[in-house]
Design brief:
This protein is mostly beta strands and 196 residues long. A hairpin with a 7-residue loop joins β9 and β10.
């Protein structure tokens, strides 16, 4: 990181009255203010060149990303029994792509989907099924995943999971889940954080 950037962050920290300037190992600095609210610079990569990407999940402690794509065959036909395919992009390993293993599919990052009478799908995470997602076509006939973000119907783009230091493999200490997307009615970006 350039020295001028660090100086600018320190100056901003002084202006805002921050309690400290913190650095995460290998990441962009974050500013922590006196009341412990975080204004961090998002240093996670955005998936590129992913055909039929619906949304993706990122979480601590690394930049490995789980991508959820429309599961279509070579003729463009949707797989109606498994409409969403999930896989890793492992950025620390040079951006290689790997399918989820059995445990990841069944207990962590997999998706359960149920076809509804109108041809759309109710979609739920295997790890947190309290968040209803809907796979359906938009007005242009393109499949999108929809979620209520801040009580607004939105096209889901990204889920970020902040994981604390405690917890276990089977029961991680999730500090919050952050949803990002685009509100259908206005086209504006929306964001919501909640504690599961």
């Amino acid at each position: 990181m350039k020295i001028n950037t660090i100086r600018s962050l320190i100056a901003l920290c002084m202006i805002l009255g921050c309690g400290s300037l913190a650095f995460k190992s290998g990441a962009t600095p974050i500013l922590v203010n006196k009341i412990h609210k975080i204004a961090y610079i998002d240093s996670f990569p955005t998936p590129k060149n992913v055909d039929n990407l619906l949304f993706y999940i990122q979480r601590d402690p690394n930049t490995n990303t789980i991508c959820y794509t429309l599961n279509i065959d070579k003729n463009g036909k949707l797989n109606i029994s498994t409409p969403i395919h999930a896989f890793w992009i492992r950025y620390p390993e040079g951006g290689i792509r790997k399918d989820l293993n059995f445990i990841q599919r069944k207990f962590a990052y997999g998706i359960n989907s149920k076809k509804l009478a109108d041809g759309s799908y109710d979609v739920r995470s295997v790890a947190y099924n309290k968040l209803p997602l809907h796979l359906r076509k938009d007005e242009k006939g393109v499949y999108r995943v929809y979620a209520d973000i801040n009580k607004r119907e939105s096209v889901l783009e990204r889920i970020f999971i902040r994981i604390g230091d405690g917890g276990t493999f089977w029961n991680p200490d999730v500090k919050y889940i952050e949803l990002k997307g685009v509100e259908v009615k206005t086209g504006k970006r929306v964001l919501e954080r909640f504690k599961p």
